[in-house]
Amino acid sequence: MKGRQKAAEGGRGRQGVTTFALAAALFAAPCRPLAPLAAQSRDVILATTTSTRDAGLLDSLLPVFERQTRYTVKVIAVGSGQALAMGRRGDADLVLSHGLRGLSDPVAAVRRIAERRAPFVSRGDQSGTHQREQLFWKRAGFSSIPRNDWYIESGQGMGATLQLADEKHAYTLTDRATYLTWRDKLQLVPMVEGDSLLYNVYHVLELNPRNASRINVAGGRALADFLVAPETQRLIGEYGKSRFGQSLFVPDAGKEASP
Question: What is the pLDDT of residue 211?
């Protein structure tokens, strides 16, 4: 069990790919030689966030990976916290999740929302987006998350949260990729955007080889290699341009991480 707890944090890594406007980059750590493994499954379990699923990027990338490698990827889309926990338990072969950076204007925005008691829909699911929102409230001077009738928790993924915010004529925090995917079905318009401090970096986490008896280490490594490959980076940069006139994701593999 101890080895499984280290699954998401003790793996190797490599700088990866930036994924979306509220965010994005995929990372992993320096290669370790992998011990010889017994034949493993051709299925690869990818634990990731609902935002990557709702934006449709994986539907574009994974068929390419599956054709090239003959692996079959099973996607489990949950909040970032749940995805990381799956990795720690050895319940996934690869984790695609994101972390946090600093912020500025969004802090003033949530403070004004609270002052006006304007309806706000939170994901409320401990996803990366939800954790980012919680950080906004903390920086705005709130010791805890507002518990008022104007503050609504959806407990759902990004697409469902956007729909609820639209129904309630409320504010919400979203990634650009999911918003653009749903935009034609919503009356919501961006109010605070464009600040680089809003970026929420994504990481690809290869799991600890000590879990090889339970996880598909080779399959997870193959998928991680695929995600940071130059051709995949090109596909990521092109995704969304034909439909929205702009890229939904920013490729970032090989770039140095910000200090």
Answer: 66
